[in-house]
Amino acid sequence: MARIGFIGLGNxxxxxxxxxxxxxxxxxxxxxxxxxVEKLKAAGGAAVDMPGVAAGRADVVITMLPxxxxxxxxxxxxxxxVESANPGTLLIDCSTIDVATARxxxxxxxxxxxxxxxxxxxxxxGGATAGTLTFMVGGPAQAFVRAEHILQQMGKTIVHAGGxxxxxxxxxxxxxxxxxxxxxxxxxxxxxxxxxxEHQKLFDIASKSSGQCWAMTSYCPVPGPVxxxxxxxxxxxxxTAAMMLKDLKLAQDAAKxxxxxxxxxxxxxxxxxxxxxxxxxxxxxxxVIRFIRG
Amino acid sequence: MARIGFIGLGNxxxxxxxxxxxxxxxxxxxxxxxxxVEKLKAAGGAAVDMPGVAAGRADVVITMLPxxxxxxxxxxxxxxxVESANPGTLLIDCSTIDVATARxxxxxxxxxxxxxxxxxxxxxxGGATAGTLTFMVGGPAQAFVRAEHILQQMGKTIVHAGGxxxxxxxxxxxxxxxxxxxxxxxxxxxxxxxxxxEHQKLFDIASKSSGQCWAMTSYCPVPGPVxxxxxxxxxxxxxTAAMMLKDLKLAQDAAKxxxxxxxxxxxxxxxxxxxxxxxxxxxxxxxVIRFIRG
Lengths: 294, 294
Hints:
2 copies of one chain form a homodimer.
Chain A lengths: L2 E5 L5 H10 L3 E5 L3 H9 L3 E2 L3 H7 L2 E4 L4 H9 L4 H4 L5 E4 L5 H13 L3 E4 L2 E2 L1 H7 L2 E6 L2 H12 L2 E8 L3 H30 L3 H8 L7 H4 L23 H18 L4 H18 L7 H6 L1
Parallel strand pairs in A: 1-2, 1-4, 2-3, 4-5, 5-6, 8-9
Antiparallel strand pairs in A: 7-8
Helix pairs in contact in A: 1-7, 4-6, 9-12, 9-13, 12-13
């Protein structure tokens, strides 16, 4: 069992840290929100004031933070994780951030003899609580081997996507497909409505044909065909439109920086941006169908 | 066994008619191309000069034509199918055409006491030859019941999508999702390439995650992950880019006429239009990835 420093005890981080405590690890948590730290303590964890302090005492450091700037700060600031961790410490950043920051931080960590992985997740708060997250992992094989059993205590599917930053790359590529295909499915249902074709009929046909996609068959944006989808509970999230917009913007940042042309990805980002601006950012991302319906 | 008039013996129509002959029907074919008619005769069919003549002698008329204008002509022209067919004749249009024409023709047929179905297919020339097409059928239940066993002799999946025009509606809604999601998957692979994420890694992750879609898992636009996909044979069609563009334009026509907003569908039509204009119209539609790669 390891001594784990866990930085970022938000909606995702807290249940992940709790699962590590249940698995028998000694978890020391850091968060700007005292209430989250108290919940960790109630679950059997300990509180530490600063990320650097937690890192200096840990075998493994896990971070789960909102954006690239936070990751850069806690890892690279004076007295931060990279400066404070002992050589050989395993660092796992589970935040979803831009590829460039993930690679910069990994490079700085490697230069100090640390083992760094980017390991963004999918599965949402439900998956974090149930311990069924998917981890998309980038970084050296040596670090992946050490991390795998720990990630398995928080998740079900652990995939090594290649070198540093590739976990982030895999996540934004996947979520760009998801964002686009959710709009595609929504537009098709709206067109079907206008043409007098029933939702269930379109579902029955497309779900068994070349239009089949996860956005339709597992997360259908109209109520009825898939009883578990958020459409059946007034689009309560789930995965919020704001989170989808964040990922689509990260994909666009990566496309611009790397020189890839992703015209449909850019269009999807614009549509989700307008949807979020309409005040629906905390609604499930499949609610975009109501925005498309107008 | 029925006497069937079959109008349009092209790449799709000829093998469909041949399957009806194999099933024991008496098939009389009409086509502007004498070579196609000869092939039908060689398979045991008969030749007739005009659609109206074939219709006047048939229990069932099947049409498989390139576009709405052809359908309008052969059904509605003086001496055409609607004027010449005996009351009670079953008319099945398997062409992929605009919803408005399908509904206009069905209305004219109904007014003359004929039973009319629109029944566009998916499955391509391979499916037509093997008799494994999917038929998406619009029209009255009474006509569907009579048509079902005949369609089963040319196809595997026969779905009744509702009233007149709903077969066309289902097909364009499905294919709009397909056209958009193929571009989405292609953009994701191109972005992955630029970020140094291997094709197979992205496939392994997205195919089991929320980016899963038919365009990726059955028709992958990069060679390797799905050995049967056209990407493995230099994008030999398959389903041509020109055919995809046709369907995306039909979807846009239907959206404009019916008042649906399908911004991503419009964007997909533009991208396929540019791809076809680049001289690749006869290439498989998954070849659009090469165009996106630039």
